[in-house]
Amino acid sequence: MALGFGLLRLSPEAFWSMTLPELAAALRGLRGETGLPDAPDGATFDALMRLFPDERSPHGG
Length: 61
Hints:
The chain is mainly alpha-helical and 61 residues long. The protein has helices at residues 2-7, 12-17, 20-30, 42-51. The termini are far apart.
């Protein structure tokens, strides 16, 4: 309960309605664990931009 009320600052209603997987996900997010890969570096991003350039829409957008 200390994690939910103190660390996550959840209301009692939010805390008691959470499932254990939801609570675990909230704690992972608090630690900065997104489960996502790191962003590409500059060289990789530039290569992707060359492979997939932005194109103007036919309506001028």
